[in-house]
Amino acid sequence: FFSSTDSLNSNIFFKLAKSEFVDHLVMDSNMALFGSPSSPSIVGILVSAAQGYGKSIHYELATERILKCTDEGRLENDKENLDSDSGVSLLIQSGIKRALESGVHAIGVTNLCEPKAIENLVLNLNDGGEGTDDSLNKEILLRGASSFKPTAIIFIPYRAFYAFQFAVSGVTCGLDSLQCWHESFKSIPMFGHGELAIPGTCTVDAFQHMLINVWDDLRTRHAQVAVIADPEQLTEDLLKFSEERIFPRFPCVMKNETWHFFEGDELFALYKEKSFN
To answer: What is the pLDDT of residue 140?
Structure first.
């Protein structure tokens, strides 16, 4: 969810997250929504959104879109992809780090045709030498994973994304092309919409990209950032300890006096009640 392809998944997720019969929430991301690798920050955002329900949170690292398998069940281009400096390794390592920072409880890998290859892919997880802002050591990562005490809040109602359909950068709606999160991503095979991308750019969800930019900016000032998609989760304790609160608004859909999506007025009223009381 948190994308313009979603018109169902998050409705189900947030209903189940509140259920007394559900003990575990598995947040799945293959980090390649529109045929191009996206920012690994989406993993941290999904894990953060799952906080607050009293459940065990798992990150499912789905590899099928970034690590192709041969008909014989072997990894294609395994030497190149398993290199610690490859785009695939960087994407996987950074996604795991974002999950840990957001307080994930468990991490699993799915659809990796050679399971032992995960050793190579996360070999340098704690080195911090990847040319990005990921210079966190093991102690800091584990400290983040052991608790979730955010000092900043992003509130974005998940149904706001339902108002748009396939807002793909550089492809649909006249949207501008966007640079890939890292230059090494050019080595990751593109598919679908990604095959239409200009070299050096990646096709990503434009509205998700906006959310990621806000989250990444807050991360420069806060160790943990809460992403709230349901105003019921704007609890007194969460608001009391927040130093920054960000409320992104989508054009046309979220106006000062009303929200134009299903149950928007009810959610808007609840948001104002929680935020201003």
So the answer is: 56
Q: How far apart are CA 125 and CA 137, in angstroms?
A: 9
What distance in Å separates the CA atoms of residue 182 and residue 92, rounded to the nearest whole number? 13
Phi, psi of 259 (to 5 degrees): -115, 125
Our CA dihedral for 203, 153, 1, 174, rounded to 10 degrees, sits at: -30
Whether residue 7 has pLDDT greater than 80: no
- The string of pLDDT tens digits covering residues 152-200 is 999 999 988 888 888 889 898 888 999 999 998 888 888 888 888 898 8
Phi first, then psi: what are they for 206, rounded to 5°? -65, -35
Mean pLDDT in the chain? 85
Instruction: Measure the CA dihedral 25/27/28/34, to 10°.
Output: 140
The CA angle 148-47-106, to the nearest 5 degrees, is 85
